[in-house]
Design a protein that fits this description.
six-stranded antiparallel sheet; mainly beta
Length: 246
């Protein structure tokens, strides 16, 4: 059974800061906790965009999503990892991968004979429940490789629409450099894509990822009527704590 947790987080919605203590939340889904050896389990899929516009799809959008075909134990910190059939460590291979709390895109790597094709690493959550109502995406992104590489870009899609994008620079910090709290209206067909893309190169583009879906405890209202995704706000210095329920 999926383990639920309670979280307290500072929330900014409709231009009003909501007190953390007054906003008890339950964890509906967690990328780091839920990663599975089967695509689609608990609503999570692990894949990529590659700019392929076959069948009328829009390149580098959710229409372009394909699942990564191979999962294997990885001798580094990212076990297990979803990847392409041929690793970027092999000539002509790809560095595209998604692991526990981790994503890496593909692109040119100077001095390495890997494939130069641009591929964005994508973590997708498709609501596996029948729940309707307010929900909150709690997302953290940071550099995993320290002061190397040229950073990465990211883009967040909710039901096919881009709601936030930006870049992450190199950092020796183990903290998340980008913190997003995104209020959404959850339906049984909700689909969220978090994509990580290369910049000039894909060298040292390993990215630390937190991707949680939170729902208010019964009786708690997260957003005012009509707030919607247009009221997305960043919440700097977020306070966050969790305690096991039950």
């Amino acid at each position: 059974m999926h383990q639920f947790w309670r979280a307290a987080a500072c929330v900014v919605a409709c231009g009003v800061g909501m007190n953390a203590a007054a906003m008890p939340m339950d964890l509906l889904a967690s990328f780091a906790d839920d990663i599975e050896p089967i695509q689609g389990n608990n609503g999570w899929s692990y894949g990529f965009y590659d700019g392929d516009s076959d069948f009328g799809s829009l390149p580098f959008t959710p229409d372009d999503f394909e699942t990564l075909p191979v999962i294997e134990p990885n001798p580094s910190a990212f076990d297990p990892i979803w990847r392409q059939p041929v690793s970027g460590l092999v000539p002509g291979g790809f560095f595209t991968g998604v692991g526990k709390g981790y994503a890496h895109p593909n692109g040119p790597v100077p001095g390495v004979a890997s494939a130069d094709d641009e591929q964005w690493a994508v973590i997708r959550w498709s609501n596996p429940t029948a729940l309707f109502g307010d929900a909150l995406l709690d997302i953290g992104l940071g550099d995993w490789d320290g002061n190397s590489g040229d950073g990465v870009g990211y883009e967040l899609f909710v039901d096919g629409a881009s709601v936030d994008s930006g870049t992450i620079s190199n950092s020796a910090s183990t903290d998340f450099q980008v913190e997003l709290l995104v209020p959404i209206q959850l339906t049984p067909t909700t689909e969220i894509d978090l994509a990580i893309r290369p910049l000039a190169t894909a060298a040292n583009d390993a990215t630390r990822v937190r991707f949680d879906v939170l729902v208010p405890e019964p009786g708690v209202m997260l957003m005012a009527t009509g707030c919607g995704l247009s009221m997305l706000r960043r919440c700097n210095g977020m306070h966050r704590q969790r305690a096991r329920i039950g």
